[in-house]
Structures are given as structure tokens and as C-alpha cells.
Write a structure and sequence with these properties.
CATH class of the largest domain: Mainly Beta
Distance between the termini: 31 Å
Strand content: 25-35%
Number of helices: 22
Number of strands: 50
CATH architecture of the largest domain: Distorted Sandwich
Radius of gyration: 30 Å
Helix content: 25-40%
Strand order of the largest sheet: 1-2-9-10-11-12-23-18-15-14-20
Number of domains: 4
CATH superfamily of the largest domain: Glycoside hydrolase, family 65, N-terminal domain
Length: 908
């Protein structure tokens, strides 16, 4: 596929883009596990932070990338030619961008480093600027600028590093911008400038501050700057600006040296280096460090560890190896090497979201930091493949966020398993939240065979909200903590299985007047937030129905594999298993609601702490009955058709209890979400799946932007959600929303509609790499807008789903209660010319290179697994569906170190 923008260089994901400044909204992530989070643009704009209240550079949105004059600038005053910015971020260079005087420039990037090269047209001076965040325990970003004289004449250069030091909370950007500058205490040392505000001045209160923000620098030989411009107003001069500062333009001599203290002004990390002469062909480098520390800088250590070219180069090599090793945990090799490399960047994205949350890049969903409940579970899908060692603990800790009423905490702490009682008094429940943990936990159980996790005890979350946020416990206070207690005041714990059962069985009874589960505050689509009273989510009723069926199967496996004859649950929960103690009619909405109200009353404030022991087969049977009722109910009542004869499932009811989808005066209304979960969960029959795909192609598929999240509803929907206030074709209102589109592909693959699923996935890839329209670096965006531009790049849960779908469905590598299940669903075009496609992944604590050999180049549906050879020896496998099962013990006998090769022979 021809790419008219960036191009991959080599075979390891590195890419190059000429004249990157010609594209707006571009940025690149630089991050480490220590908590340094940076974003860098083609002109070295962006932000540097360790959290919402600790920004070294000014917090920004994407509009600031081209409107703000701030950046990680490095100026060179070239004698005879004047001031020049190595990043291109000067008033003169910006004005030349659209003229024939434009300079040559290009950026290169890899995992995770960013390089900008720019040529000074008049003097033939070339600048190469590399930025990265080292994989150390420090919150630091490093930048190396290498200046090379490519001309014939000797050049006389005066360099100045210039990074604005914001040094405070994002909350101070507007409300207290000047006042908080009065708190700045600025110190100069031999190699740089530190800013330590006297107070933190934000919503947490005016407290003494220790956090320090620093800019340090040295040349390649370790020579320190010769002076500083630590105040912004002095640096830019009267009438000047960050993109045309007087001190640089006039090549002024700095008056501030090391050992000076200043206070009360906006700070500037401006370091002046000695004037040098650079002969033809000669180069010189400078290293600049941008640092956030918990107190005043350990100056000697940072200079020694970071401020030399040798240290920079060694740390860069370490950084490249670190990210390469991490991403090599999973890699795909097919007939399309460019797509394989693109997948490397998709594979990186779930890790980025773990580190950034949904914040701290120029596009952000949650500007104050953190992730939501749904994110915790969906990010774990990819982490199970990428970083499996900690997944068990993450899953276990996450269940501590479940409330006893089946809802969950909505404020997530920064540490695993940390949930914070609501401090904003916003009573809201997303009805889909209970559905995701089972999906993620099942993947873990299948990958590991660890059924024991289900029986581990865990606490429940508690705050002022009770009865699924429909009431408050006015006597509850923060001092009581955020864990559910018994009547005796002891912390109550139930098994992980009890948490899962509760999350999925409570919604079964929480139904609206059409018998579907209530929409409440919203479901997966947060934009459907205006139907809390009579709204219903048919889509997630299907999801919960399939979950209940999965729980039935899980309990039977627990009985068969672990010999578990009974389970223990809180005695108050017994009423929810109604078929075991006097069944109610599931067709009766009032009976369901009354039973649920009875349960709410029993657990509103505390629980008894007593457990009931139930027969596991009886519990499983109860769940199966509920699941089958949901499936039949949806097939009978929510299967609709248009006047044109297309058929699909209705997805929602609005707050006037009106069916949302179907024929309307403004046109046909249809949602993709309503189709995904009915297909994925088995509600749709095979015949219905075929009809759904035809309807989707008719009403949602668009040649320009792929599969829309919904068709046009023809105006705002105050009885459904804010999403319809967005312009059609943007975000949750009719954009190609990657997350649901990928899940649509996943559902199709699961049901054996492989060609249709591949077409959906391939459309996302082609939209993302069509740089002329998408204007984004490699990876998948949150959504594609009406113009085809990729929006909210890097931080999207869709990356986890692409990785999961490609590995477990397309390449057919998945677990089955700890055993390895191989069932490839690859099309003929996905094999190379020799009929080979392969994937490397972790399973059973072994690195496996799984090679599919398709010597006849047969298409999907024309081949099956004939044999499996492990490290050269044929092994016994068991047929399972359209694939085979390889017992875990076979893999555990392999050496733990090194790669094991599994050759899978395909044939007719």
C-alpha cells in the first residue's frame, strides 16, 4: 500500500516524515515507568508533566500545538545570518513555511524516541535534535542537539537552549496564572535553572511545596552554559515573544550566572552557551535535561548521570532496547510487512494508556488524569498478552471497586486497586460497567488455567451512594473508609466469583418497561446520558445475557476441573437466584423490580457477614435460565426491519420509552453497538448475522470514513444523550469510532464471518495510514472524523481490542482453561508467497513462535489444522471445534528460556 506521508524505515517500526510541520495536530509520546509523561510535536512543542498538578511545561490541548509560541526551543545565532531555531519555531521560519524559502526538514521516530532534522538554508548548518525519556527511576526528558556545518565556510555560532518553565498545576493556567508566578523561587546553578514554587496553589489547598522543575545543559565535552536568562520577560524583551526573543535576536550577553536566586516572575529555562567556531564538516553536540524532582535537585548526580553525550547515547540505546524487548512480546508476520509494523505501534498503545491514563497528551478525555472503570478491565486484555506477570494482581485488586449493589466505584486512584469515595457528589451509574470484568477475567482463566483466582476473597467498595446510586446513606462519612462492613463493623469479603455473579445478576432484574436492562447514566457510549428514567440498552442486555451463559459454563468447569460442588455467597444474595427459592415470572417487569428492591433494602447499609452454601449445579442452572430468557426475549421483541427490507437488532430505548432505531421521517436510524453484542454473544442466529452485515453495509458503512457508530438521527436527542449535540460524523455521533468498529470485527470473527471481519479490520488500518487524510503517525485513533482525520491518537481502548482480535481470532491463538487452542482464521492474502504466516507470543510462560504453513495457499474455509510440530517433533493434539487443543503440559516441558517453534501444518 502506498503511503503518501510517513514511511517505515527498515523492518522494526521506525518511520520518517518529510516536512512534518506541514501537518497540524501531530504529536508523539515520550514516557517512562517513573511517571514522566511528555508529548512532543514536529516543532518540539508539547508538554512535560508527572501529573495534573505538576507540569514542567505549560499544559496544552491540540489547538495550542499551533497557536502557542512555547516549545523546547534551541536557538543558534549564526554570525552573518542572525537567529535560527533548530525546531523551526521562530517567527521568521514560521512565516517562510508556505513560501519557496522553506527549509528542508524531516522527523524520524521509533520506540520511544523522536528525532527532528532541519537545515538552515542560507548557511548550510544542519541540526539534528533527538528527544526521549530514559527508562530510569527519574522523571526526566533528555534532548541532544547536534549541529553540523555542511557548508564550505567556517561558521560562528552562539547557542541558547530555551524551555519555558511553567512549574505548577494545570488548574493555575487561567484562574491564577499571574498569582502563582509570584510563588516561583528560581535558582541558577553551574549547569542550569531550577524552579521550586513556595506553595502549591490549587484545589488541594495552599500548601508548602517541594516539587522542583529544572532545565540543565552542557555541551558534548561537559562544558556548562556561560550564563542564563531565568525570567521570561527578560528573555523575550519588551515587545518580544518566545518565537522572537530579544536576547537571542540581539545576541545579548547574559547577566545572570550560577548561584543566583530570583523570585516572583514567570520562569524561563534559557541557557546560553559559549560562542564557537565550526569548520566545514565539523559537528558539536549539546545535551539538555528537563527534570521534575520531589525536592531540590541532586545537582551532582544529575550532571554526572545525564549531561554528557556518552551518557545520552548509552541511555538512548538502553531505551530503544527496553521498548523493543517489550513490544517483541507479540509480533505478527504476514504477507504485508507494512501492516505488521503498524501493528507494533498498535501493540504499544495499551501500554501507553496504562502509563498516561486517558490524559496528558494533547487530545485527552480526562484532563485531570486517571482512567475509568471500563478502562481498567479493557486495558488488561492487552496487558495479559504484553505484560502478563502482574495481571493476576491487577484483576484481583480491581474487584475491590465493586459495590454490593452491583455497581462500582467511578473514581479510580493512581495505584492498582485504589478506589476513592466520590468527592463530587455526582450519583451516576454506567449500566455496562458490570459486564466487562467477566470478559477480562475469562481471558485470564483461559490463558492461565488459574481457576483458583475465582475463589479468592476480596472486599467491596462503599461510599455514600446506595441502591445503585438511587439513594444516599446520609450517615456515612469519609472517615468510615471505603470498604463495605458487616453489622458488627468488620470488613466484609466475598470471593471474586461472588463479585462477578453479583455484577451480572443484578442487572438482569434492573429492567425498564420493555423488559430490557435500564440505560441508567449511560452504557459504553458515554454520550447516551440523557435517558436515566425510561431509557433501556438492548445492546448491553445482550452482553449481560451472554455473560450469564458464560458464567453457567464457567461454574460447570469449576465443578468438573476443580471438583467444586458448592459455592458460598453472602446470604443476602440468595434471593437473586430466584429459581432456587420460588421462581418469579421473567416476563413480569414489576416482579423483577420488586425482587431487586428487596435485595437493595437488605444490603443498603451493611451485610450480616453470614454466608449461604449453594449447590454449584443449581446456581449454574439458574444462570442458564436467565441467559436463555434474555436471548429469546431479544429475538422476539427487538429484531426490526426497515421499509427497504433490511433487518437488524434495535439497540436502545430513549427516555420517552420510544424505540430508537428503525424508519423515521428524517431517515433510517441504526446503531453499530446494537449489532455488536447481539452477534458476539450469540443472540443473533447465523442467518441474522448475515442480514445484520447487509444492513450495516447499507446504513453505516461509508466509503470515506468506514463503519459509522450510528446513522444520522437528524438532530439533537435530549431524551437520549449529549452525543447527538455533536456534529454528525464526529466522536460518538456517527464517526468511525474505532473501539466499537473493532468489536464488530471481533464479533464477526467469533461467529465465523471471517471475510466480513477482515474487511472491517482492514478498513481501520487503511483509514489510519492514509496520511493525506488521517494526518497521524502509525497507530489507531479513538475515532476518524467526517474529513477522515484521526482523532485522539494513542490513548484508546480500541488498540487492546485490535491486538486481542488479531491474536486470538485472526491468528487463532488463545487459551482454553490453560491449554493452547489453535484455530487460525487467516485469509489466503494474509500468507506470504510461500504460504507462511506467523506470530510470536507468550503462553504458559514460554515465548512461542507459531508458524502456520499453508503450502496449497488455500483460503479460509478450505483448510484445517492437520498436524502440529513442536521444536521439530510431532505432538498429539485434540480436535476442538475447527481447531486443535495442545495440552499445557507439552509446553511446560519446553525450556523456559529462548523461543519454542510450533509449526502448524494446514491442509484440506
Amino acid at each position: 500500500m502506498r503511503n503518501r506521508g510517513w514511511e517505515f524505515q527498515g523492518g522494526h517500526g521506525e518511520f520518517r516524515l518529510k516536512h512534518p510541520e506541514r501537518s497540524s495536530y501531530l504529536y508523539f509520546p515520550l514516557v517512562n515507568e517513573a511517571g514522566m509523561m511528555s508529548a512532543i510535536s514536529p516543532n518540539l512543542h508539547g508538554e512535560i508533566t508527572s501529573g495534573h498538578n505538576t507540569f514542567l511545561m505549560e499544559p496544552i490541548s491540540v489547538e495550542d500545538l499551533h497557536n502557542s509560541k512555547a516549545s523546547r526551543n534551541f536557538w543558534v545565532h549564526v554570525e552573518g545570518y542572525g537567529a535560527w531555531s533548530v525546531s523551526g519555531n521562530s517567527a521568521k521560519q514560521n512565516s517562510e513555511q508556505f513560501t519557496t524559502a522553506e527549509e528542508n526538514s524531516f522527523m524520524e521516530a521509533g520506540f520511544l524516541w523522536h528525532k527532528l532534522t532541519r537545515d538552515h538554508r542560507e548557511s548550510s548548518l544542519r541540526a539534528e535534535t533527538i528527544n526521549f525519556v530514559p527508562v530510569t527511576d527519574d522523571k526526566i526528558e533528555l534532548m541532544k542537539i547536534t549541529l553540523t556545518n555542511n557548508g564550505n565556510d567556517e561558521l560562528h555560532l552562539t547557542p541558547t537552549a530555551a524551555i519555558p518553565l511553567y512549574g505548577r498545576s494545570a488548574d493555575d493556567l487561567r484562574d491564577h496564572r499571574h498569582v502563582t508566578s509570584l510563588l516561583h523561587r528560581v535558582y541558577t546553578s553551574e549547569h542550569g535553572i531550577e524552579v521550586q514554587p513556595a506553595l502549591s496553589f490549587d484545589e488541594r489547598g495552599h500548601k508548602a511545596n517541594k516539587i522542583t522543575y529544572s532545565v540543565l545543559g552542557a555541551d558534548a565535552n561537559g562544558n556548562a552554559p556561560i550564563g542564563f536568562f531565568p525570567e521570561t520577560e527578560e528573555f523575550i524583551g519588551e515587545g518580544g515573544a518566545l518565537d522572537w526573543p530579544e536576547t537571542v535576536i540581539a545576541n545579548a550577553t547574559p547577566t545572570i550566572s550560577a548561584g543566583v536566586s530570583l523570585e516572583g516572575y514567570e520562569a524561563m529555562g534559557a541557557l546560553r552557551f559559549e560562542t564557537i567556531s565550526l569548520a566545514s564538516g565539523e559537528s558539536i553536540s549539546y545535551v539538555v535535561a528537563m527534570v521534575i524532582t520531589d525536592d531540590r535537585l541532586d545537582y551532582t548526580r544529575y550532571v554526572q548521570d545525564y549531561l554528557s553525550e556518552a551518557s545520552f547515547d548509552a541511555l538512548l540505546a538502553q531505551n530503544q532496547k527496553y521498548w523493543s524487548d517489550k513490544l517483541n512480546t507479540v509480533s505478527f508476520t504476514s504477507g504485508d510487512s507494512e501492516q505488521d509494523q503498524w501493528m507494533k505501534w498498535v501493540t504499544l498503545q495499551p501500554i501507553l494508556r496504562r502509563l498516561y491514563g486517558n490524559s496528558f497528551l494533547p487530545y485527552h478525555d480526562y484532563g485531570r488524569g486517571g482512567r475509568g472503570w471500563r478502562d481498567l478491565w479493557q486495558d488488561c486484555l492487552a496487558l495479559m498478552v504484553m505484560e502478563p506477570d502482574e495481571v493476576r494482581n491487577l484483576l484481583f485488586n480491581n474487584y475491590a471497586g465493586v459495590r454490593i449493589d452491583g455497581s462500582n466505584a467511578t473514581i479510580i486512584g493512581t495505584k492498582p486497586g485504589e478506589f476513592i469515595a466520590d468527592r463530587n457528589n455526582i450519583p451516576r451509574v454506567w449500566m455496562d460497567h458490570g459486564a466487562w470484568p467477566l470478559l477480562t477475567t475469562l481471558l485470564y482463566v483461559h490463558q492461565s488455567g488459574d481457576l483458583d483466582l475465582l475463589l479468592q476473597p476480596q472486599s467491596y467498595f462503599r461510599d455514600t451512594f446506595i441502591k445503585r446510586c438511587k439513594a444516599r446513606d446520609l450517615a456515612w462519612t469519609l472517615e468510615q473508609g471505603n470498604k463495605l462492613t458487616t453489622a458488627k463493623g468488620e470488613i466484609y469479603q466475598g470471593t471474586i466469583l461472588e463479585h462477578i455473579l453479583l455484577q451480572n445478576i443484578v442487572p438482569f432484574f434492573n429492567v425498564g418497561e420493555h423488559g430490557n436492562i435500564k440505560l441508567e447514566g449511560a452504557d459504553w457510549n458515554d454520550g447516551l446520558d440523557l435517558a436515566p428514567n425510561r431509557g433501556e440498552s438492548v445492546a448491553f442486555t445482550a452482553f449481560y445475557g451472554s455473560n450469564l451463559l458464560e458464567l453457567f459454563r464457567l461454574l460447570m468447569q469449576l465443578k468438573e476441573r476443580a471438583g467444586q460442588e458448592t459455592i458460598e455467597i453472602a446470604e443476602e444474595m440468595v434471593v437473586l437466584f430466584d429459581s432456587m427459592a420460588g421462581s418469579i415470572s421473567y416476563d413480569s417487569i414489576s416482579a423483577k423490580q420488586q425482587l431487586l428492591d428487596q435485595y437493595y433494602d437488605n444490603v443498603a447499609l451493611t451485610v450480616s457477614g453470614r454466608k449461604a452454601k449453594l449447590n454449584i449445579s443449581d446456581v449454574a442452572g439458574d444462570l442458564k435460565n436467565k441467559a436463555l430468557w434474555i436471548m429469546e426475549h431479544l429475538r422476539e421483541n427487538e429484531w426490526i426491519s426497515s421499509k427497504e427490507g433490511y433487518e437488524w437488532f434495535n439497540g436502545y430505548y430513549n427516555d420517552d420509552a420510544e424505540r430508537v432505531e428503525g424508519d423515521y421521517p428524517t431517515g433510517v436510524r441504526m446503531t453499530l453497538t446494537g449489532q455488536v453484542f447481539t452477534i458476539m454473544g450469540g443472540v443473533a442466529t447465523d442467518d441474522q448475522v448475515g442480514k445484520i452485515t447487509s444492513a450495516v453495509d447499507r446504513y453505516l458503512k461509508d466509503k470515506k470514513i468506514g463503519y459509522r457508530l450510528n446513522s444520522s438521527f437528524g438532530g439533537i436527542q435530549q431524551n437520549l444523550g449529549r452525543a447527538f449535540g455533536f456534529a454528525f460524523g464526529h466522536k460518538e455521533n456517527g464517526a468511525m469510532f474505532s473501539h466499537m468498529t473493532v468489536m464488530y470485527a471481533n464479533a464477526l470473527y467469533k461467529r465465523g464471518f471471517v471475510k466480513e471481519g477482515y474487511e472491517v479490520l482492514d478498513s481501520i488500518y487503511r483509514l489510519s495510514v492514509d496520511f493525506d487524510k488521517s494526518r497521524m503517525y502509525p497507530g489507531v485513533p479513538e475515532y476518524i472524523n467526517e474529513k477522515g482525520r484521526g482523532m485522539y491518537t494513542y490513548l484508546t481502548g480500541s488498540a487492546s481490542w485490535i491486538l486481542l482480535t488479531q491474536l486470538t481470532e485472526m491468528y487463532g491463538v488463545k487459551g482454553y482453561y490453560g491449554d493452547l487452542h489453535l484455530e487460525p482464521k487467516l485469509l489466503k492474502s494474509q500468507f506470504d508467497q510461500q504460504g507462511i504466516a506467523s506470530v510470536e507470543t507468550l503462553f504458559a510462560d514460554r515465548k512461542l513462535n507459531i508458524v502456520y504453513r499453508n503450502p496449497q495457499l488455500a483460503d479460509y474455509g478450505q483448510y484445517q489444522v492437520k498436524s502440529v510440530i513442536v521444536n521439530g517433533a510431532a505432538v498429539t493434539v485434540k480436535n476442538e471445534g475447527n481447531g486443535v487443543l495442545l495440552h499445557r503440559s507439552v509446553l511446560e516441558q519446553l525450556p523456559a528460556e529462548g523461543n519454542a517453534e510450533l509449526v502448524v501444518i494446514l491442509g484440506s
